[in-house]
Amino acid sequence: MVLPFIALYSVEELKVGIAESGLVIAVYGIGSFVSAPFAGKLSDKIGSVRLMIVSLFLSGIFLFFYSLVNDFYLFLVLSFFWAIISESFRPASMSFISSQITGERRKTAFAVYRLAINAGMSIGPVLGGILSTIDFSLLFYFDGATSIAAGIFLILSGMKENQLSTETVSENSEKTVPEKFSILKNKLFIYFLIALIPVDIVFFQHIGALPLFIVGELGFSKAMFGFLMAINTVLVIIIEVPLNDAMRNWKHWKALALGSLLAACGFGFLIFTTGIYLLIISVVIWTFGEMIIFPAASDYVAEISPADKRGEYMGYFQMTFSASLVLGPLIGTKVLDDFGSFILWGSIFILGMISTLMMLGLRNRKSIAPQINEIN
Predict the structure, then answer these.
(1) Residue 15: CB partners within 8 Å, gap ≥ 6?
(2) pLDDT for 280-317, tens place per residue?
(3) Are the beta carbons of 252 and 299 closer than 8 angstroms?
(4) What CA–CA distance (Å, rounded) separates 344 from 347?
(5) Contact call for residues 147 and 60 (beta carbons, < 8 A)
(6) 276-304 helix and 222-246 helix, angle to the nearest 10 degrees
(7) Rounded Cα gap, residues 371 and 226, in angstroms
(8) pLDDT tens digits, one per residue of 109-166
(9) Cβ distance 213 to 270 under 8 Å?
(10) Residue 23's closest CA among 73, 66, 85, 87?
């Protein structure tokens, strides 16, 4: 609820310029990037459920302090630490899903996880817009209260780790994996992260260059851009879970390559786009890419990670999104401004195809960790 309005809050309440307000999102992205690997390791040590609860409570408390800050630079510092605390929830939650659900249904579970996120992203900004018209401070109070309420819910639900499953797998992994095995020595995982970054940058154009292209260059209204993004959200909510359930037996490299290809083609198609119907086709194509690649990527990381290091692996996996959140919009808007839309969408298509070809390369790659040599 807060993040979509945080730049606007900086302009209207803290009285800074538009360029300076963009620093808030950048600082948040940097905090998220820094948080991910450490949060993953902490999740492995204290348990993913415990870290999720701590993250929700501390994030809620931090949000209450936002309305008390009037200095912009202190606001930036607060945003950095809020990102570290808030974003630690993601690796922990993904680690929890990985440990609770195994086999062919895990990809579907990650699709359900994304469904919850997208449902929240559909409701949050609407409520945030209403609250901000009454009093901007209500954004922080309401979002903080819901975070704390979610933490209380987890406590009252009595949700615990699947100890039997985790311990059983951990015993097997201890026999094969050296205790000091470094995640950076897992060549398969590092290769996968490198392959994922280009398509992540492609996808994050939807919050960077895409709105500027649709509104600024094609001349459509902001409301029309909102309508196009609503198509994306509706497709994700309605189709993503059954789509991934139908694809649950697909080999990982096939799903990852197809998702990357659709993302590349969807955004690359914008080279030829001038009217609303072609824009809708573009959104539909890259949305299907999004729905396929992200659950498949999460499932793949869960598949190739040792059970006792799953949180750490998810943390590094999350780093790719944080880095792309910072770099994607920055690169896209810069290329659009300096070289025009043809060069931008052509370059974006090439980036997506790089990921596609690298994902195809996963077919014959093996991890050096003994217990995860067998991959789909």
Answers:
(1) none
(2) 999 999 999 999 999 999 999 988 888 888 888 998 99
(3) yes
(4) 5
(5) yes
(6) 40
(7) 46
(8) 999 998 888 888 778 877 887 888 888 889 899 999 999 999 999 999 877 765 434 4
(9) yes
(10) 73
Position of tokens 């994607």? 328
What is the spatial distance between Cα 335 and Cα 211, in angstroms, rounded to a whole number?
Answer: 14
Largest CA distance in the chain: 62
Q: How far is CA 276 from CA 281, 283, 308, 341, in A?
A: 9, 11, 49, 17
CB 216 within 8 A of CB 101: no
Query: 173-224, pLDDT tens digit by residue?
Result: 433 444 455 677 788 999 999 999 999 999 989 888 898 899 888 998 878 8
Q: For residue 120, give every residue at least 6 positions away whose Cβ sits within 8 Å of its Cβ, in sequence order, or none.
A: none
Mean pLDDT of the chain: 85
273: DSSP letter = -
Q: Tokens for 230, please give them.
A: 């609503």
pTM of the model: 0.79
Distance CA 355, CA 73 (A): 38
pLDDT at 24 over 90: no
Task: Tokens for 59, please give them.
Answer: 């994030």
Residue 71 to residue 245: CA distance in whole angstroms: 49
Domain chopping of the chain, boundaries: 3-168+182-368
CATH topology of domain 3-168+182-368: Growth Hormone; Chain: A; (1.20.1250)
Q: What is the CA radius of gyration of the chain?
A: 21
Q: How many CB atoms lie within 10 A of CB 216?
A: 13
User: Residue for token digits 């649950």?
Assistant: 248
SS3 for 74-105 is HHHHHHHHHHHHHCCHHHHHHHHHHHHCCHHH
At 67-125, the pLDDT tens digits run 888 898 999 999 899 999 998 998 899 889 988 887 778 889 999 998 888 888 778 87
* 23 vs 77: CA distance, rounded Å: 11
- Distance separating alpha carbons of residues 356 and 348, to the nearest angstrom: 12
Structure tokens at 273: 């786009």
For 72, other C-beta atoms within 10 Å of its C-beta total 16
